[in-house]
Amino acid sequence: MSEFVSKFINFEKYQIRNFIFKNDNEFIGNDEGVELDFDFGVTSAFTKDKKNAKITLSCKLFDEESYSCNESPFFLDIEVDGFFSCTNDIDIEDFVVNSTAILFPYLRSFVSSFTSQSGIETITIPPVNIYELLTGNNNEE
Question: Looking at domain 3-135, which CATH architecture does it have?
Answer without folding.
Answer: Roll (3.10)
